[in-house]
Amino acid sequence: MVHREFVGLGMGRLALLLIAVTCPALQAQPLNVMNNSPVSALYGIPVHRDALQLPAGHWALDIQGGISNHFTDANRGGESVSFDGETTRLDMRIRYGLSERWELQVDIPWLQHRGGQLDELVEDWHKLFGLPGGGRSAAEQDQLHFLFEDGNGGRRNLRRSVKGMGEPSLTLSYQAWSEGGRQLSIAAGVRMGSGKQEDWLGSGETDYSLGLRFSDRDTLADYDMSWHLQGGVLRLGDSSLLPMGPESATWYASSSLDWRVNGTFTLVAQTDSHGRLYDSDLPQLGKPTFQLSLGAHWQASERWRMQLGFSEDLAVDRSPDISFFAGLSYRP
Prior knowledge:
The protein has 332 residues and is mostly beta strands.
């Protein structure tokens, strides 16, 4: 009996070891975090990911859903803005290794703006930790109201629930350097302006991005940790959704640190930011954003991985108050 228990224990450990060694999905990954602010979500800001490319002929599928709660208003320099509501988002990402150095990625989003259900939960959260509510308690709960006025008669207003396809994007990545557990890649992307402007589902114009990704799984390997960086520039399409039009270009940057707790469970801390999108005195439009996300990956099997986490707006009023997300990844 004792012998069988030792054999069973040894086989279990061996199985975990084999999964960790043979499964590429177990490589530490950043969180798939989007800034779902009604303004930021209009544009093709690249999502943080690692620099390791898929092998030639291999493909991967990622599906993620999330919900973001908005409440912010401001009036400065003759401009005024109010974002109150929730955004539900579903993303599908397909990646394919074209060669040992080239990889193609397609992202297809679906969005819904509505009154939502999280206002009471967010208010209780603020009260529990003594955080400012920003006027939430005086506003009607679970309503949808996206409003912008430029002071010169220009106005955009959304008060009805809407849903539909967002704007798909195509990204081509090149593995510029790889040595051991360190990689550097270059990524060029285009986001098609097919979203309905009047429903705040997209900018209606094409965006272009160019950036670098760096991953290091060696430096902190003794601590079962790795880190990833991403940064670049985004050329914004000349959208007419808001009266004054966006900046011609802006920057984006992300960083993440992960810790592998065991063979199947990893904790991740991540920051995501981007530059201002409009020449405006309003922080919601004219200031850089900064989000903090905390999450976890669970390797359910050799081919399936789950992701769960949440994001908070460290730069207040420039990202959703809070976002929750969950995802599923498949690697054949």
